[in-house]
Amino acid sequence: MTSTTLATSIYHLYHPTSRKFILLSCAGIAILTPFTDTVYLPALSSVADTFDANDTMVALTVSIYLACVGIGQLIWGPLSDYYGRMPVLYVTIFLFEAFTIGCIFVTDINQLIILRSLEGFVVGNTVVSAQSIISDVFPPDERGTAMAAFLV
What we know:
The chain has 152 residues and is mainly α. The protein is built from eight helices and no strands.
């Protein structure tokens, strides 16, 4: 069997319906990154009032979160290539939930900044893993359509 035949046969391991379900699951997982940021933005004034913090400190909870999302993607991508997509995804989703719950119970703005940065670092894996899974499952001639559906 030639390498071209082997490469094309790998993509046919999944039934088209299974691939669509995987695509939908990946989109659902990857929505965590923008959702965690967008749902938080309307509460910034409440955060400032609750912790008696200035606007700069409250803005840090957003900017550091976004910076850590980017840094996390650089770290989690190679780790998911080495250890596998699903084990790394399970670990990061568990940590994301733990840090999110921790954000509920913080008592000052510094704790919130730290937990939001950790939350951003681990949630950065969702987009990386989802895009990698789509690349693993869809053949090259269908990948563009799948990525377009994923990003919409």
